[in-house]
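sorry for the late reply, my laptop died twice this morning and i had to redo everyting from scratch. anyway the thing you sent over, i finally got around to it. pasting the sequence first so we're on the same page, its 144 residues, then the predicted structure underneath. double check i copied it right bc i was rushing
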Amino acid sequence: MNQFQLVCILSIIAIAYAGGDAKDKEKKDAKFIEDCQKETNASDDDVEEFEEYEFPKTKTQACLVTCYYKKTGVIKDDNTLNMDKALEELAEVEKEDKETHGKLKEILKDCNTKYTPTKECDSIKVYTDCILKSAKEAGIPLDE
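ok and here's the structure:
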């Protein structure tokens, strides 16, 4: 698992939807991505990198990712994490590793309390930096 995938697991990519099946989720995701591509003037390459779990390298890519997470409800309009959604996602981690689940839950809560991104597209970087630093300190293995 690479660093960006860890963040995605934590709260930012594998979004839980209330009800619906996998095809419904895929349709919603595709619509969110399409809308965000238009709203952020992202290129097809930007979208492709996002869909391949590449960490945003440009402001446009960061804005695309932030837009997506706002549409899914993981990031709120004030650029803070929606802890309810983020914690829902941790249920998947708990199935595989309860100890890591507990650590990640505390990391998410801590990062959400410590940081509030002030600029529209900073959310993804601010939370990713905090989560990755804290995960490393907690001994959660990360591929570099």
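The chain has seven helices and no strands.
thats about all i looked at so far, will dig more tmrw
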